[in-house]
Write a structure and sequence with these properties.
Elements lengths: L1 H23 L3 H14 L3 E3 L5 E3 H6 L3 E7 L6 H16 L7 E7 L7 H10 L7 E4 L3 H10 L14 E5 L4 E5 L5 H13 L1
Helix pairs in contact: 4-7
Length: 195
């Protein structure tokens, strides 16, 4: 009888250990998809408006659903307007913003967009908030990343205003029209969270 009880306890412990190992770990398909993102984009370091470094895939794309847009701080029209529209989207996302959804504004003018100028731009647009990173790096790095997103241009004034949203862990990416209403953009982002 004592042997039976010990055997049952060991079986329960083994099942609990196996269950814990499978529920705590990311599913293998998510790891594979994240590895593909690493191979595609690389994992270069970018610097945000606070001077903090972040690896593009490991720290930024791999953590949550992201909305990516392209800006440059000397822009007088499209960039400030799009940033203001994204402010409205951010407000509509409520508690999901910052915890499940992050905004990444990537500089297409890395020679002039330093962390300090990005911070000044973000503050002027009232967008210097947790969950929204304004990012830059050396020109070679920004060219590589933005080219992979099909967003690089040598002339910042001619940059695309297309929005790209996705979840690298699920390898699900969508392009969002910049003229979409904020409600539509927010709804599209929330759908990505629920996948």
């Amino acid at each position: 009888m004592k042997t039976l009880v010990i055997s049952l306890l060991l079986c329960c412990l083994l099942v609990k250990t196996i269950w814990a190992d499978t529920t705590d770990a990311a599913p293998s398909y998510q790891v594979d998809r994240l590895e593909r993102a690493l191979l595609y984009f690389g994992d270069d370091k970018l610097t945000d408006q606070h001077g903090e470094s972040h690896r593009f895939v490991s720290d930024l794309l791999g953590q949550s659903v992201v909305l990516i847009n392209v800006i440059f701080t000397h822009c007088q029209d499209a960039c400030p307007m799009q940033t203001q529209k994204l402010q409205v989207v951010r407000e509509q996302l409520k508690q999901h913003f910052g915890s499940q959804i992050a905004f990444l504004s990537l500089s297409v003018d890395p020679d002039r967009d330093t962390p300090l100028t990005l911070k000044a731009f973000a503050e002027k647009q009232q967008a210097n908030v947790p969950g929204w990173k304004f990012l830059t790096a050396d020109k070679a790095t920004m060219t590589r990343i933005l080219s992979r997103l099909n967003q690089w241009t040598d002339q910042p004034d001619n940059h695309s205003t297309l929005l790209i949203a996705g979840n690298a862990r699920h390898a699900h990416w969508v392009k969002l029209r910049p003229d979409s209403p904020p409600e539509r953009i927010a709804a599209d982002l929330l759908r990505l969270v629920s996948r």
